[in-house]
Specification:
Immunoglobulin-like; 3 domains; 6-stranded mixed β-sheet; 22 strands
């Protein structure tokens, strides 16, 4: 960026000139810089990032004033606002292995006295919650666990006790992850001449934000045709998983130690005859898959900012 001592065509200049120079002001000085043409804004990665931030922004609008103040408190000492910290937290969760973000919102004060405080809060998906609390400015070493069974619909009331009069306190809420409990593949039908061998099927999800979530630790064992073709194939069906926009089904061929990508679909069924399956060549990919501990799909998890309150005298 160059400082302009004699602005182009006028006392001051601003804006773009012939798609080659951009004029403007910076800290009261007239400046000029070379025009830089924007790059491709529609790569898959860029679209995914925009989808993540859009989802996080929509969730932020559902917070009430106390919720937003809690995120502002949580952001103190960091080079960002409470809003930016919330967006970052949600985007990172959705970019990882969580399919949906379990929003903690609508906190309300039910009652506060000198030795206890009672609050209500809502979750998108009721689950066990952990509340870490303590005096403001100190570590939140105290913990209260509230089970999912305490919720009525999506709302729960909890109480913090053994407090001291006229003290400033704070607390944060963590929603424990919710996992799928179904077996994923509900029906696998073999069509063919009767000659079979073992097959291993693995599922991955594509979330609404375009993030791929693998679940390679859980594999469904079945039998299929020795040689796949138009007359010998598998019909694969599975239960819908909440939050999944698409599914990718893989076939692990144990005999040849290779993995085939069966297909990608938004429906809950596929016909597999290997005619259009893509082989994954790198054996290291397979070994990396099985290095993970078996686990179910994490459907949702969430956390709050730092809520503050003061006990009565």
């Amino acid at each position: 960026m160059a400082k302009v001592t004699g602005p182009l065509f006028s006392i001051d200049a601003s804006g773009q000139f012939a798609s080659s120079m951009i004029f403007g002001k910076w800290k009261g000085l007239n400046t000029a810089r070379r025009y830089s043409r924007p790059g491709d804004r529609n790569t898959a990665r860029q679209e995914q990032v925009r989808a993540l931030f859009t989802e996080a922004t929509v969730l932020y609008q559902k917070l009430n004033g106390r919720d937003k103040s809690a995120w502002n408190e949580q952001a103190l000492g960091r080079p960002m606002s409470g809003y930016n910290l919330f967006i970052k937290t949600v985007a990172e969760a959705l970019r990882g292995e969580t399919i949906e973000y379990n929003l903690i919102h609508s906190l309300e004060v039910e009652r506060i006295n000198s030795t206890s405080a009672e609050f209500s809060v809502e979750l998108f998906d009721p689950t066990d919650i952990e509340i870490r609390w303590g005096e403001r400015g100190r570590a939140y070493n105290e913990m209260l666990t509230v089970p999912e069974t305490s919720f009525q619909d999506n709302k729960v009331i909890f109480k913090l006790e053994d407090l001291r009069p006229a003290r400033d306190y704070g607390f944060r809420i963590n929603a424990m992850p919710i996992y799928t409990t179904n077996t994923f593949f509900s029906n696998i039908e073999y069509v063919g001449d009767g000659s079979t061998r073992p097959y291993g099927l693995i599922m991955a999800l594509i979330t609404a934000c375009g993030v791929k979530v693998m679940n390679t630790g859980i594999q469904h064992s079945t039998h299929g045709p020795v040689e796949m073709n138009d007359d010998n194939y598998l019909i694969i069906e599975w239960e819908p998983v909440p939050g999944a926009a698409e599914y990718i089904i893989y076939h692990h061929d144990w005999q040849q130690e290779v993995v085939y990508k069966v297909g990608r679909t938004s429906s809950t069924h596929l016909v597999y005859n290997r005619q259009e399956a893509d082989m994954i060549q790198d054996i290291d990919d397979i070994e990396e898959w099985y290095a993970h501990e078996p686990k179910e799909f994490p459907l949702s998890s969430g956390q709050s900012g730092s809520y503050l309150f003061t006990t009565r005298r």
